[in-house]
Specification:
mainly alpha, about 0% strand, globular, 7 helices
Length: about 170
Amino acid sequence: MTSRESFTPEEWRTLAQTPVEVMFGVVVASNGGLRRELKTIRRTLRHADEFGPETELVTHLAGFVRVNADRVRRDAETHDFNRAVTIARAHDYCRETTTIVRARATAAERDEYGRFVRWCAERVADAGVEGGILRLGGRRVSPAERAFIDAIGETLAVADTSGETIE
């Protein structure tokens, strides 16, 4: 079991910030309504325990992001959401996180952490309807959001929603 104390403060901040950066990436990937999706990000973070963490690492992390959800929302409201920069930053965080958890966490914790990050992204992507007229006939998850989430899954080497591992 890996606890928060197993990580340096900088590593812990990176682990906690990665789901947030990935959710920001989902927001800009779809060109959706930023205010609505920022509310979804805060709601997702506030209810991170709904993920049902099983490992000590993700249990502690879910509690940490839940407590900091309002701060994340305030910070996001002053954030510059340049599409290319935001997506690149999300991928950078995922690569850095992968390095950290490979060095310090168990295989089960690495897998669950990746699933947690992807779960956060899926919640934001599923929050609204993209396209259509007056939100009728649109898609819950746009092709751009799906492509971004799949790319993040590859970076984190986590299972997709069908249960197959992405290599």
